[in-house]
Amino acid sequence: MSKEALVEQIMHNNPDMTKKDAGQIVQVFTQGVTDLLKQSQDVSLIGFGKFSVNDVPARTGRNPSTGETIQISARKQAKFAPGKALKDAVN
Questions:
Q1: Rounded to whole angstroms, how far apart are CA atoms 48 and 74?
Q2: Could you list the pLDDT tens digit for every one of the 91 residues in the chain?
Q3: Which of 59, 57, 55, 16 is nearest to 37 (CA)?
Q4: Could you give phi then psi for residue 77, rounded to 5 degrees?
Q5: Which CATH number covers residue 56?
Q6: Residues spanned by the domain of 66
Q7: Which terminus has fewer CB within 10 Å in the chain: N or C?
């Protein structure tokens, strides 16, 4: 689902809401989650799920085209774990 489709879904569920308002809701939510993850803070939405940051350690890899060994640097990875209510709704 694209951001545009999500905005349309929000408008469908709230007939009095304008497209601009629905777009702002999506933008504020995504920016808020992004800002908190940048600060390495978890975002838990009970029943929906949990957004968190995972540290991925540095490792040795291999360039598939040349076979040369390369060093892959450490990084942070955003993760999402669905909550029980979301899992139940999907199944």
A1: 29
A2: 899 999 999 999 998 999 999 999 999 999 999 999 999 999 999 999 999 999 999 999 999 999 999 999 999 999 999 999 999 999 9
A3: 55
A4: -130, 130
A5: 4.10.520.10
A6: 3-85
A7: C
Of 50, 48, 75, 47, the closest CA to residue 61 belongs to 75
31 in a domain, yes or no? yes
Question: Where do we find the tokens 């949990």?
Answer: 50
The count of structural domains within the chain is 1
Q: Where are the beta strands (DSSP E) in the chain?
A: 43-45, 49-56, 59-62, 69-72, 75-82
Residue 91 placed within a domain? no
Nearest to 85 by CA among 39, 60, 48: 48
